[in-house]
Design goal:
67% helix; mainly alpha
């Protein structure tokens, strides 16, 4: 699955969302199905706070987010597509690791290894496997950044792997959210187009799914970065799909319908542009999410109880 598929995933579990090479390249994406599949790739933990300051509501929210991800993950890995994507990710990881080990000073080899560690960490079913995989990617990116501090891909994949590591933590994950924010922000400063505006997309999802009171969550910031991702790479389906899902999440059904129509108008052209084996898992994810938002928009709006 594409890396994007996973960015939504992380979000959900902490951080997926979530693909990963320059927009001029064809990425190997296997971000998976867990995003709801990487947005769900970026449901993030809260900022560090003293234990006495954490509220019961925040704790319950964290537990709920993590638990919801595992339910989604179980559904994904029960499918043949999930198994195939995992096998492909494992193969890509081994190839990238071999290349990185053979060329430890090669910056591209380092970030490509970071990409595969993220893909694989996002796909494996358990934290006991996820943490050591993510840690390898974090170490590779950090080491390479000592020699190439202005590499957008390195900052980007460091942020994504930090998100995967955060998914394996409880309170220890809280401090990683700020680091993710810094890495995505720096990647944007260096090359906002990388991975079809991947850092803009990831940062938007991070702001969208993180709690506002106990962490960095911000609807206004989320909308800004998700819109920027769409403006930078309008033909990339996930960018507009994220916006549709977000507007629906924010109960702006009118805007969600508008963006959905634009997405549907470009769907066939995107299929032709993002074609081939490397995109099969991503299309499976995008199609499932598309059907979900279409169904949600077909249903009557829910009436909420008045808030006092």
């Amino acid at each position: 699955m594409n890396l994007n598929v996973a960015a939504s995933r992380q979000s959900a579990a902490i951080f997926k969302t979530e693909s990963v090479r320059r927009s001029t390249e064809t990425p190997l994406r296997f971000r998976g199905p867990k995003r709801e599949f990487w947005v769900r790739r970026i449901r993030t933990p809260f900022r560090d706070q003293p234990c006495g300051v954490r509220t019961t509501g925040s704790m319950l929210l964290l537990v709920t987010l993590v638990a919801s991800w595992f339910v989604l993950a179980d559904e994904v890995f029960a499918s043949s597509e999930g198994s195939d994507a995992l096998a492909t990710s494992e193969k890509a990881f081994q190839q990238a690791k071999t290349n990185h080990d053979a060329h430890p000073g090669d910056i591209r080899a380092a970030w490509e290894f970071g990409r595969t560690t993220f893909d694989l960490a996002d796909m494996v079913p358990g934290n006991s496997q996820r943490a050591p995989i993510a840690e390898q990617g974090i170490a590779a990116c950090k080491q390479a950044l000592e020699h190439a501090p202005d590499s957008a891909p390195l900052h980007y994949y460091l942020g994504l792997n930090l998100g995967e590591l955060a998914r394996t933590k409880t309170f220890g994950a809280l401090r990683l959210v700020d680091q993710m924010e810094r890495e995505f922000t720096r990647s944007i400063e260096l090359d906002s187009m990388f991975d079809y505006a991947g850092a803009e997309r990831s940062l938007g999802l991070l702001y969208r799914d993180a709690p506002a009171l106990a962490s960095i969550g911000s609807r206004s910031k989320a909308r800004i970065h998700l819109q920027r991702a769409l403006d930078l790479a309008p033909r990339y389906p996930e960018n507009r799909l994220n916006l549709v899902e977000s507007e629906l999440k924010w109960s702006d059904r009118k805007t969600a319908r508008k963006e959905l129509k634009a997405l549907m108008d470009s769907w066939d052209a995107a299929h032709a542009e993002f074609a081939g084996p490397a995109w099969i898992a991503s299309w499976a994810d995008w199609t499932a999410r598309l059907e979900k938002v279409k169904k949600a928009l077909d249903e009557p709006a829910r009436l909420e109880s008045p808030r006092h």
